[in-house]
């Protein structure tokens, strides 16, 4: 009996000891958990980011842990920035997304990388990085400086034609014009910029004349006078009013009251008009905000994707509304032309370089362009010599092209003689465009195409299930 009592006492003592130990451990853990934020703060204050991150990972409270981990990652990014580890800093800031100050930190890191490239004489890289920064700090001026220094270096290396072309694009920057004139004299014996440009491209006088004629015809084309959506068509008359036909389920054809319109475009189910005073009007489906253009001012051109609208401002920047986050537009400056299609946007910058909203549409060929058209997955660019370049279609046999249109089904080209060329992507969805003559404008959609003749008639090809091709009675001018 005594032996049993002794065993029970031992068990009781052990249980009490275990409970006390467990309680002490829990108290210690709680104390550690409660003290950990203070230790993290102290580590961050001392600049020991690794220690702070290690402590943060041990926090049991998920919300608190995530908050401290973000602070640690931001501190690591700031540390890399201070150490001038530009690429590492940019990567760290980019990973922070929209965390407070991350965008500014990323821009500062890229600016630092661009400045380092400029200092090291890697001028092409510096110009590219500064260009991407858009209006940040003095990035635009630094991009021009990088190109200027590159031009000077190329001239000193005897690469006269390349130097001239850079200086030619720089226009009145510093003494670029005077240097270009001097190089033009070296290239062709005359202080004439256009002659120098021709010589730098090894162009004959006949070719220079031919390109000038193409440019004149291109400039004479009416812009934005016909547009097609999924199942509707719109056209602009020379008196500034607009016609529309086809599917009107969202009010996209309610344009009869519009006046003083100078350009139109269309998305999937909406129609947009640019007015003479630089403001914009829109009608149709607006569930993505694609018609929220009421506060736009100083617009000189409009274009649309399926669910978005874009405007080119007089100062060379671009505004947008509707579906998708076109974040890159904050950095787009010195834009001279824009083109939208499906889910994509393309722009031309001074000098003819293309900017694309989506990686899938980018191509090494899209440079020194005079015009561009885009659709999801590809872009077609026009060159001054009348050629067309497109990664999605073989257009090497197209000549004297002065305008282009792009859709999900085909690339269209308009030549200087008013004839239409077409490259269709899928068998069974082709339309015969060989009989089209004297065409002045065109628009390509998913199921139908519209063409405006020199006499102002509107010809349509394609499906007509909603009356989108009922344009036979239209007369634009």
Describe the global form. Answer: globular
Count of domains: 3
Examine the coordinates and then state which fold CATH places here, giving the name of the CATH topology of the largest domain: Methylamine Dehydrogenase, Chain H
Radius of gyration: 31 Å
Q: Pick out the low-confidence regions.
A: 24-33
- Work out the oligomeric state of the chains in this entry: single chain
Structural class: alpha+beta
**CATH architecture descriptor name of the largest domain:** 7 Propeller
Q: Briefly, what CATH class of the largest domain?
A: Mainly Beta
In the sheet with the most strands, the strands line up as 1-2-3
What's the CATH superfamily of the largest domain, by name? Answer: Regulator of chromosome condensation 1/beta-lactamase-inhibitor protein II
> pLDDT average, as an integer?
89
What does this structure look like?
There is one protein chain. By secondary structure, the protein is of the alpha+beta class. The protein folds into 3 domains: 2-83; 158-202, no CATH class; 219-462, Regulator of chromosome condensation 1/beta-lactamase-inhibitor protein II (Methylamine Dehydrogenase, Chain H). It has 11 helices and 21 strands. The protein has a 3-stranded antiparallel β-sheet, with no helix packed on it. Strand 5 and strand 6 form a beta hairpin. Helix 8 (160-170) packs antiparallel against helix 9 and helix 8 (160-170) crosses helix 10 (193-200). The longest helix has 44 residues, at 2-45. The protein is globular and about 120 Å long. The model is unreliable at 24-33 (pLDDT under 50).
